[in-house]
Amino acid sequence: MKGHGGGTFAAMRPRNKKGSTMKVGRVFVVSSLGAVVVALGGCAQLGTPKGAPIDLKPEKCPPGQCDIEVRVEGNCKITVNPELAEVADQDNLMRWVIKSEGYVFDKDGIEFSFFSPFKTLKSSDPKVFRVLNKNDWSGQKDFKYDVRIKGCKPLDPWVRNTQ
């Protein structure tokens, strides 16, 4: 068993394209780093891998604009109708409207994940939240989002984009 230069262990080391031996520690670090990048890439998937719960029936939004009714009941329990809005066209204006008295949206009233085709638009009415759904990805994708109303625990319903 010899030190740095070669010897018995050098013969067992992997070789690069030029035929030089590589240190196993570096191979492990590079391999581990690659696995971390692949794993993080999986977390940043566009849309939700599992999709909306199977018991939710999608309600198709009309072309151009989709209105979603928001209600707050009892101890700040938020509900939306539909729970699964299905959008088939591009550049659909989606509007969430609070129908219950005494409630308004938080600053981030409707919040989708960072990697999504949704763009928040300004609204002068604190009971209305507007989002442009670009729906510019092919195939079907389900997106979970948060409904945030001041003083209430968020609700997390779904939007399904189809093309």
In words, what does this structure look like?
By secondary structure, the chain is mainly β. The chain folds into two domains: 9-43; 59-161, Cupredoxins -  blue copper proteins (Immunoglobulin-like). Helices cover 12% and strands 36% of the residues. It has one helix and ten strands. It has one helix at residues 24-43; strands spanning 59-60, 65-73, 77-81, 84-87, 92-98, 105-112, 118-121, 128-133, 141-149, 158-161. The strands form two sheets. Strands 1-4-10-9-6 form a five-stranded mixed beta sheet, with no helix packed on it. The longest helix has 20 residues, at 24-43.
List keywords for this structure.
163 residues, mainly beta, Immunoglobulin-like, 5-stranded mixed sheet, 1 helix, 10 strands, globular
Secondary structure: number of strands = 10
Low-confidence region ranges: 24-48
Number of helices: 1
| Number of structural units classed as domains | 2
CATH architecture term of the largest domain: Sandwich
CATH class bucket of the largest domain: Mainly Beta
Tell me the overall shape.
globular
Summarize the structure.
Helices cover about 10% and strands about 35% of the residues. It is built from one helix and ten strands; from the N terminus they run αββββββββββ.
